[in-house]
Amino acid sequence: MSTPLTAEAIDAAVTERLARRPWPVTRLRTDAEVSFEFFPTATEAGAASLRDCSRQLDQLSPSFFSVTYGAGGSTRDRTNDTIANVRASTSSDVAAHLTCVASTKDEVDNVIDSYHASGIRRIVALRGDTPEGADETVSGYADAVALVEGIRSRADGSSFDISVAAYPETHPKAKSRAHDIENLKRKIDAGADRAITQFFFETDEYFRFVDECRAAGISAPIVPGIMPITSFERVSGFAARCGTSIPAWMPELFEGLDEAPEIHALIAATVAAEQCRRLAEHGVRQFHFYTMNKPELTLAVCRTLGLQPNVGSVQAAAAS
Q1: Catalytic residue among 33, 37, 202, 212
Q2: 77: how many CB neighbours lie within 10 A of its CB?
Q3: Given this model, what pLDDT does residue 320 score?
Q4: pLDDT lower than 70: segments of the chain
Q5: What is the pTM of this model?
Q6: ∠ CA(50), CA(55), CA(56), 5° rounding?
Q7: What pLDDT score does 234 carry?
Q8: Per the CB 3.0–4.6 Å rule, which of 110, 149, 168, 218 could disulfide with 209?
Q9: Does 174 map to a domain?
Q10: Would 248 be classed as within a structural domain?
Q11: 1 lies in some domain
């Protein structure tokens, strides 16, 4: 077991490491709007932890929480349980993810209708990755464009707020960058209200992507997805699978910190805060955080954006 670091040692290590990063540290207060993403829990302990996480983040009055959904409905029950858990624990809206791959139209339509019947009015519409062993030839909604059209075609379809995915560094399976942007335009034209991006670390890639989207006629909000690094190894694996590039300076910044969680957390919070600061300086006011069901780093970054806990929410959380 490693010996706990003193406050002085932590400060010295953080100062030395941050001297290598490319951005200055600047406190920034903005009129930011935030949303937070969770994944379904599989155990009662995980559900209890998520209740605590969602209550802490609810103090920041987010626009909504979102809960992911396995392609082909592979986590459908756990997603529904997690949505119910978050709704019971917080006062904020919840957006339910919905995928269409390896599912029939009737199956997907039934989920849409069940969401509406339960009071959910926000959906994150995605094609989804095909689950291992699933039948991709199932006759259903072909892609996210068709899914958005399907949601809007339901009797209550106009009541939904629909978000879709966007990829600043291009979807790994896209034919080309231009084709990927055209596909996003089709999703927006089909009735989506906004796009939420895959997480990224090269902020210039986001700016370039937004410029190209505007030039292509996409006027809907393109909300940046922010991934505070709870584990550099884990996030690197995610990045490799989804086509997100890791900046050359980042591996060295986190090198050797597995045994120094205090330093890892401080570095991770600073990196994400500086990314948000730079985005905000360019006019971005909406941020979507991939929380990994952990509140601490996201709370720290949101404080640097000027978001303060709602006093009423803090008192309610303390009493629950």
Answers
A1: 37
A2: 10
A3: 53
A4: 1-5, 7, 10-30, 70-74, 132-138, 311-320
A5: 0.88
A6: 100
A7: 93
A8: 168
A9: yes
A10: yes
A11: no
Amino acid letter for position 279: L
Q: Which two tokens stand for residue 35?
A: 């949303």
Q: Which amino acid, residue 262?
A: E
- Which sign, positive or negative, has the C-alpha torsion 314, 25, 272, 254? negative
Residue with tokens 């709602």: 310
Q: By the 8 A CB rule, do 57 and 298 touch?
A: yes
Structural domain contains residue 143: yes
SS3 annotation, the chain: CCCCCCHHHHHHHHHHHHCCCCCCCCCCCCCCEEEEEECCCCCHHHHHHHHHHHHHHHCCCCCEEEECCCHHHCCHHHHHHHHHHHHHHCCCCEEEEEECCCCCHHHHHHHHHHHHHCCCCEEEEECCCCCCCCCCCCCCCCCHHHHHHHHHHCCCHHHCEEEEEECCCCCCCCCCHHHHHHHHHHHHHCCCCEEEEEECCCHHHHHHHHHHHHHCCCCCCEEEEECCCCCHHHHHHHHHHHCCCCCCCHHHHHCCCCCCHHHHHHHHHHHHHHHHHHHHHCCCCEEEEECCCCCHHHHHHHHHCCCCCCHHHHHHHHHC
Closest CA to 135 of 167, 162, 103, 111: 103
What pLDDT score was predicted for residue 17? 60
37 assigned to active site: yes
CA torsion, points 70, 120, 315, 36, in degrees to nearest 10? 40
Please provide residue 153's backbone torsions phi and psi, each rounded to the nearest 5 degrees.
Answer: -80, -10
Number of domains in the chain: 1
The amino acid that residue 149 corresponds to is E
Write the CATH number for 146.
3.20.20.220
Summarised one tens digit per residue, pLDDT across range 70-113 is 665 567 788 999 999 999 999 999 999 999 988 899 999 999 99
- Domain interval for residue 65: 7-319
Whole-number pLDDT of residue 85: 95
Q: Which residues make beta-bridge pairs with 164?
A: 125, 195
Amino acid letter for position 208: R
Contact 86, 65 (CB under 8 A): yes
